[in-house]
């Protein structure tokens, strides 16, 4: 003890130091406890998110398989009946948002009390109800003789569609020429191409110079598919019908839609009989049909405040339904 410092003052200093040390100890312990709790909370959140991701993947995969089964059974029914694909078939009815447990309630072996509270919705869209942008390019010849050229018939149809939708024809011309150039380089030049990549989806047409605002207008009427396809007259919009069928105006296209709603066309011949009253209207089995092979399947899953959407394009060949591409979109 410092002989110059009074005993009481020294005792107070020791008590203050002890109190400060106790406060520092409490602060350190509280900090460590808070860090441990945060780490535990974070681990729980990561595990919950991963579990939700896996559950969402299983559910959406199941929904995709279910949709493929519907399309396969529709193909089987059409083979037996000779009917075409139309908007009155089961595949064309959208699935409104429904609680997932409602699908499991019919199974007495499932305890729905422990099932994740999820809501599922979706729809199947006939992609051949839209004009295929890929049809603008026609490839002739084989091997080294292969050559891509613009399809004049399809170009006239798309020009008519752009006029009906009040879109600039210059965008169509530039995009079509760029698409032909891309295909020609892909056929003959193995080196990396300086041109835009060949589009696989409608959004990719922006690579060819079509503005996003124009793509938004085109979306209900235009699609990009891997091969040439015909337009399904049972499911196409009035604009697509008027654009693709020479001699058909919008009023006649609306009449065609009215007639198909009453009695869907089984074949192109049925439509030709109905449109025989219109002079100069020409249907062609190279560009039109009553059946479809390509479909888009959209699924939407809501888990609490998390929304997950998925889009898939499938191609139907006989009774086989194969996935062409699949993408997931995270919602809000």
Automatic annotation (TrEMBL):
Pfam families: T2SSK (PF03934). Keywords: Cell inner membrane, Cell membrane, Membrane, Transport. Residues 231-271 form the T2SS protein K second SAM-like domain. Signal peptide: none annotated. It is found in: Cell inner membrane. Belongs to the GSP K family. This is Type II secretion system protein K. The lineage of its organism: Bacteria, Pseudomonadati, Pseudomonadota, Betaproteobacteria, Burkholderiales.
């Amino acid at each position: 003890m410092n002989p110059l410092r009074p005993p009481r003052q020294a005792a107070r200093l020791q008590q203050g130091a002890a109190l400060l040390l106790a406060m520092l100890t409490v602060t350190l312990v509280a900090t460590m406890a808070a860090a441990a709790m945060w780490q535990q909370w974070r681990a729980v959140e990561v595990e919950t998110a991963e579990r939700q991701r896996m559950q969402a993947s299983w559910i959406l995969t199941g929904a995709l398989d279910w949709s493929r089964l519907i399309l396969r059974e529709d193909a089987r029914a059409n083979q037996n009946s000779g009917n075409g694909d139309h908007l009155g078939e089961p595949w064309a009815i959208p699935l409104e948002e429904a609680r997932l447990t409602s699908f499991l309630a019919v199974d007495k072996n499932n305890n729905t009390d422990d099932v994740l509270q999820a809501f599922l919705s979706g729809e199947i869209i006939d992609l051949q109800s839209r004009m295929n942008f890929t049809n603008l390019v026609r490839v002739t010849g084989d091997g080294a003789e292969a050559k891509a050229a613009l399809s004049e018939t399809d170009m006239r149809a798309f020009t008519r569609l752009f006029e009906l939708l009040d879109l600039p024809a210059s965008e169509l011309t530039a995009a079509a020429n760029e698409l032909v150039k891309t295909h020609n380089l892909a056929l003959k030049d193995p080196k990396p191409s300086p041109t835009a990549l060949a589009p696989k989806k409608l959004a990719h047409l922006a690579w060819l110079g079509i503005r996003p605002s124009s793509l938004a207008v085109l979306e209900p009427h235009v699609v990009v598919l891997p091969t040439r396809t015909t337009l399904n007259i049972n499911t196409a919009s009035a604009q697509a019908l008027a654009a693709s069928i020479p001699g058909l105006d919008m009023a006649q296209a609306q009449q065609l839609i009215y007639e198909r709603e009453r009695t869907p066309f089984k074949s192109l011949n049925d439509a030709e009989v109905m449109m025989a009253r219109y002079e100069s209207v020409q249907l062609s089995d190279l560009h039109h049909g009553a059946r479809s092979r390509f479909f888009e399947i959209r699924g939407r899953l809501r888990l609490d405040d998390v929304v997950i959407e998925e889009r898939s394009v499938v191609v139907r060949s006989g009774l086989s339904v194969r996935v062409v591409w699949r993408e997931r979109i995270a919602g809000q």
